[in-house]
Amino acid sequence: MTIPLGMEYAEQRKLLHWGSDCMTKIVRFKTLSDSQIRWGIQDETGIFEISKHLAPEFQNIHQVFARWDEILPDLAELCTPANLVNGATITCPIPEGGKVICIGLNYRDHAIESGMPIPSEPVVFCKLPGTICGPDEDVPIPSCSQQVDYEAELVMVIGKPAWKVKQSSALEHIFGYTCGHDVSARDWQIGRPGGQWLLGKSFPKFAPLGPAIVTRDQVPDAGSLRIEMQINGEVLQQSSTAQLIFSPAELIAYLSGCFQLLPGDVIFTGTPPGVGMARNPQRFIQPHDVCVVTIESLGSLRNCFIS
Ligand code: ZN
């Protein structure tokens, strides 16, 4: 895109970042001089501090998710060089406190790989508090598991509360999308009597998220994004969200018929084929493995596993 010379910086920024070919990425961060977590907008220039320039209620990121329309008009004016942050460390874009909902077997190609029938309704489970963590955080491998597996996933972040919403209006309740890693201890999830899904999915930091949230308006079709998992540089999962059995809108409509979705809740939408359990030979996560989830337009989420 060519930016006409002599334009005001804020005008240039509007053209650059609120045009169709660029992304507004929401990040949470802390700095060396201030350990309080704040939020801002990230682009190739850096991170712009936004939270301290808005009304106090918007320090709370859940208010940001729910009332984004009120903030949007001020953003271009706030993304100026004066508000660039020095030495920011990006943290998880979503704070603890919301629900962490997960959908199992939601990729056609993964259901076939697992030898399972294509589900006629979404398979729903959740992860307990203490599982969310951010990009570049180390994830401990629990000493009681020898089969910790990886799952790259597209994650929806809820904006407006949703209760019994129709599929036709369901997307309005999504604030944005981010990358997620549904870490899974298979020897607990499947190996234990009865199958302990909740336990196998809820060890500490088993839900890395990030690095940024891309707002929904910038992802016109979440059903056509390339998705990939690399471990130590080797591609182990590679697919497209076009393989999703239940779309984001179908999932919101289905879930909101059973419980209320609230701002800051996240929904892991399922994983494509190539997980360690289904490989021959099987390949589980080892100490020092570096897992990177990459989703087209959303970025890359990197976490190292430690013993
Ligand atoms: Zn999963």
Describe the model:
By secondary structure, the chain is an alpha+beta fold. It is globular, with a radius of gyration of 19 Å. Helix content is 16%, strand content 32%. The N terminus is likely disordered. The longest helix has 11 residues. The relative contact order is 0.19. The chain is built from 7 helices and 18 strands. Strands 1, 2, 3, 4, 5, 6, 7, 10, 11, 13 and 16 form an 11-stranded mixed sheet that branches. A 5-stranded mixed sheet has the order 8-18-17-14-15, with no helix packed on it. The chain has a two-stranded antiparallel sheet with strand order 9-12. The structure holds zinc ion (ZN).
Topology:
Elements: H1 9-17, E1 25-31, E2 34-43, E3 46-49, H2 61-66, H3 68-78, E4 88-91, E5 100-104, H4 108-113, E6 123-127, E7 132-133, E8 139-140, E9 148-149, E10 152-158, E11 174-181, E12 184-185, H5 186-189, H6 197-200, E13 207-215, E14 226-231, E15 234-240, H7 248-256, E16 266-268, E17 290-295, E18 299-306
Parallel strand pairs: 5-16, 7-13, 8-18
Antiparallel strand pairs: 1-2, 1-4, 1-13, 2-3, 5-6, 9-12, 10-11, 10-16, 11-13, 14-15, 14-17, 17-18
This protein binds zinc ion.
Residues 102, 151, 153, 182, 268, 270-271 line the site of zinc ion (ZN).
